[in-house]
Amino acid sequence: MALDPALQSGMLAAVPAMRAFALSLCHRRDRVDDLVQEALLRAITNIQLFTPGTNMTAWLFTILRNIFLNEHRDSRHEVSDRKGSFVETMTSQPEQEAHIQLDEFRTALAQLPDDQRVALILVGIGGASYDDAAKTCHCAVGTIKSRVFRARTRLVELMSIDSPQDLGPDRAIHAALTSGRLRWAA
Fold first, then answer.
1. In terms of domains, do 67 and 120 share one?
2. How far apart are CA 36 and CA 148, in angstroms?
3. 169 vs 8, 35, 84, 100, 173, CA distance in Å?
4. Is the domain of 155 the same as that of 84?
5. 11: buried, middle or exposed (CB in 10 Å: 19+, 13-18, 0-12)?
6. Residue 42 and residue 22 in contact, taking contact as beta carbons nearer than 8 Å
7. How many domains would you assign to the chain?
8. pTM value?
9. Could you tell me if 84 and 107 lie in one domain?
10. Widest CA span of the chain, in angstroms?
11. Each residue of 41-96: pLDDT tens digit?
């Protein structure tokens, strides 16, 4: 079965956001590509369930989240590396400032409660609308808005950010933290 080029393009465009979302869910870089690949495979297999004109990224995030939750339920007996201690020993330290800032962002992001982190990634990084994020998380739109606001506020505190200039050049960090509602200290 050939996939519609528009749908294929939408799926490919969503891959970077899916990778970020997968990393936020599992905290294991070695699992990210597997989760994304499995989500894309299921999406292609069930493409007839996708409603054209709706948000492809939100649909893919829902599939990815469900795969992660199913695997998580099945692997409760396994030992996890939630703090990333073992993963850190397997990677080299970043040499550029942008990499350091991104690592600081990831560390701060990992400290957020799961519900706030997922909402922030869906809306701030993934570009999902509040409505789509609410559907993905099975909650009210107001709840998503509140979670995103609290997550952004907490990240600003954790990263000791006083002004937008402190955010650095990384677009993912800007997207996650930038909101008209955040007030910067003078």
1. no
2. 23
3. 30, 28, 25, 12, 8
4. no
5. buried
6. no
7. 2
8. 0.48
9. no
10. 58
11. 999 999 998 888 899 999 999 999 999 988 877 666 555 566 666 556 655 544 56
Which two three-digit tokens encode residue 68? 């992660």
Question: What number of residues does the chain have?
Answer: 186
CB 143 within 8 A of CB 177: no
CA atoms within 13 A on the CB side of 97: 4
CA 10 to each of CA 1, 19, 35, 64: distance values in angstroms, whole numbers, following the listed order: 17, 15, 18, 15
Residue 184 belongs to a domain: no
Burial-class residue 115 by CB neighbours within 10 Å (0-12, 13-18, 19+).
middle
Q: How far is CA 179 from CA 69, 124, 152, in A?
A: 29, 9, 8
| One-letter amino acid for residue 121 of the chain | I
Give the structural domain span for 41.
1-91
Give residues with Cβ within 8 angstroms of 141, minimum separation 6: 130, 131, 134
Record the tokens describing residue 44, joined without a space.
Answer: 């292609």
Tokens of 150: 């609290």
Let me know: does 139 contact 162? Beta carbons within 8 Å: no
